[in-house]
Inverse folding.
């Protein structure tokens, strides 16, 4: 519908002699102003040197002509805004389309033929997943689904640190605890806390862990190439392999709880050598410089920080690994767009990495976008696995499921409600905002929560299940219901949310839609009414829209609550 209106506005502008004018078509903030509004007259008036309101009257007539029976009314408001109210027939047809299209309702083809790679959900092996890791997992999954809804081939990947200081701390801690075999993720978490604490408080331990870090790089590199290892190196390599595999099994299990399944896993050990090679080549080309035995990128020349890419000990930093990852992704999964989702703590890091990458491989840098997110906070504040006060993702999930089970005796439904509650609270705000999670509010059925949306859908499903498949009363209401006018906007909301990587826009819309449906449900008799067939179609269109919208956000759609 929005595209039809845009074409009508463009035609009216052309007839008025205003070519190439950039204008907006949006849903007004209040329903009294119609279903759509455009600022076309305000922006074109500058080009044509005309009075905006007078031009709006002229454009309004042209828009009304080109829309024909699609518009019931085209009016001018304020200094020159043009408001458009859709006709009853246009809304009825759009709602019928929503009811008939099923899962295809709202899908688009504007990025068909493109490949998008989304790098998200990047918890490091050798640490237990904490609740903060859920931020990138939930946001990245929503980004991937939104992009996929526009016709693109979307692949998801994660990038985990399987070598580096945190691994040395974990393996040092494991050895101090006498572990010769790693069996559970909890063992890894405890070992990491032991190593991290010792690193901060014991100079001897710090020296040992630093040396172990260098050795792990060497052993993993040689072991990965199939080179022979002595007995002690082989024991270290085996312990490292066990730790990584146990960690990844747990990470995949947690992802599955939230409906996330990634296509590729990349690790630091994959990117260390490519990163070192690319940075050293960049050093020879003058992109990097040497400083006190380290290789650095002078970010100050671009108004950024200067960061180390290769340490004086010859090991790659996170910056070098991310450069290596960029090249490795392009080698294994060539894409048209590459999106990286991490916490906003890494904004400065990625500005420097992308600045360096723009000198090393300009096209690769141009198609890469870093999308930061805020912190996930509870009453305890910011969580830190280094301090041993981490709230694990599993413990958090189990706690919310237990609270949901107090209201839902079915274990499957309780899990669906819990995931909906968690994801809603993460996705309700823009990606860069911090999330303060309130368990009670998150599970409320009174509005502004995942269960509120899920329950609205369950109500619609019950109406459809108990109805007579549209064989009831055949009368039609004189005017469209408010919920119908909202349903019409779904495809354009999805398109914008995908284009701007803003799932909060879709979630805000779905919350408004649920409120409108609940008002309709409370005030209108549906079953057995003279308009039953019509209202059933509205219910089906609502259920389709809500189901599709929640699915795009990765929120479960229970059949009962």
């Amino acid at each position: 519908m929005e595209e039809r209106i845009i074409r009508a506005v463009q035609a009216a502008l052309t007839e008025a002699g205003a070519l190439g004018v950039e204008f907006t078509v949006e849903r007004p903030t209040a329903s009294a102003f119609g279903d759509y509004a455009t600022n076309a007259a305000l922006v074109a008036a500058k080009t044509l040197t005309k009075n905006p309101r007078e031009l709006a009257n002229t454009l309004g007539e042209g828009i009304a002509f080109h829309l024909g029976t699609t518009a019931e009314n085209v009016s001018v408001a304020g200094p020159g805004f043009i408001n458009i109210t859709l006709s009853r027939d246009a809304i009825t047809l759009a709602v019928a389309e929503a009811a008939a299209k099923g899962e295809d309702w709202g899908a688009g083809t504007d990025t068909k033929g493109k490949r998008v790679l989304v790098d998200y959900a990047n918890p490091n092996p050798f640490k237990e997943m904490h609740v903060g890791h859920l931020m990138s997992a939930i946001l990245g999954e929503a980004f991937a689904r939104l992009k996929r809804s526009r016709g693109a081939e979307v692949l998801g990947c994660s990038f985990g640190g399987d070598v580096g200081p945190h691994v040395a701390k974990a393996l040092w801690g494991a050895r101090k605890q006498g572990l010769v075999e790693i069996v559970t993720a909890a063992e890894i978490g405890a070992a990491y806390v032991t190593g991290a604490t010792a690193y901060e408080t014991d100079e001897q331990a710090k020296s040992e862990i630093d040396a172990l870090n260098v050795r792990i790089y060497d052993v993993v590199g040689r072991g990965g190439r199939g080179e022979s290892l002595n007995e002690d190196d082989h024991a270290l390599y085996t312990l490292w392999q066990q730790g990584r595999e146990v960690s990844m099994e747990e990470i995949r299990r947690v992802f599955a709880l939230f409906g996330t399944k990634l296509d590729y896993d990349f690790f630091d050990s994959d990117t260390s050598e490519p990163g070192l090679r690319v940075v050293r080549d960049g050093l020879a080309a003058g992109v990097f410089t040497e400083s006190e035995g380290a290789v650095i990128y002078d970010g100050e020349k671009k108004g950024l920080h200067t960061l180390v890419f290769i340490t004086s000990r010859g090991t790659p930093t996170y910056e070098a690994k991310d450069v290596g990852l960029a090249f490795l992704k392009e080698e294994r999964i060539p894409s048209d767009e590459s999106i990286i989702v991490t916490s906003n703590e890494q904004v400065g890091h990625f500005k420097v990495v992308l600045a360096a990458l723009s000198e090393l491989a300009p096209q690769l840098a141009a198609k890469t976008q870093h999308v930061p997110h805020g912190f996930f906070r509870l009453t305890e504040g910011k969580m830190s696995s280094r301090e041993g006060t981490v709230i694990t993702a599993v413990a958090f999930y189990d706690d919310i499921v237990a609270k949901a089970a107090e209201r839902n005796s079915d274990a499957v439904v309780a899990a669906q409600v819990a995931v909906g509650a968690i994801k809603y609270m993460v996705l309700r705000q823009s990606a860069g905002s911090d999330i303060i999670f309130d368990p009670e509010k998150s599970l409320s059925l009174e509005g502004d929560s995942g269960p509120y949306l899920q329950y609205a859908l369950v109500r619609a499903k019950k109406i459809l299940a108990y109805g007579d498949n549209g064989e009831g009363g055949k009368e039609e209401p004189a005017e469209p219901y408010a919920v119908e006018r909202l349903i019409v906007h779904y495809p354009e909301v999805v398109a914008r949310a995908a284009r701007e990587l803003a799932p909060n826009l879709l979630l805000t819309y779905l919350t408004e839609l649920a409120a409108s449906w609940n008002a309709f449900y409370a005030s209108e008799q549906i079953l057995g009414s003279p308009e039953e067939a019509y209202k059933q179609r509205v219910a089906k269109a609502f259920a389709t829209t809500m189901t599709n919208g929640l699915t795009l956000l990765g929120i479960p759609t229970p059949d009962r609550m």
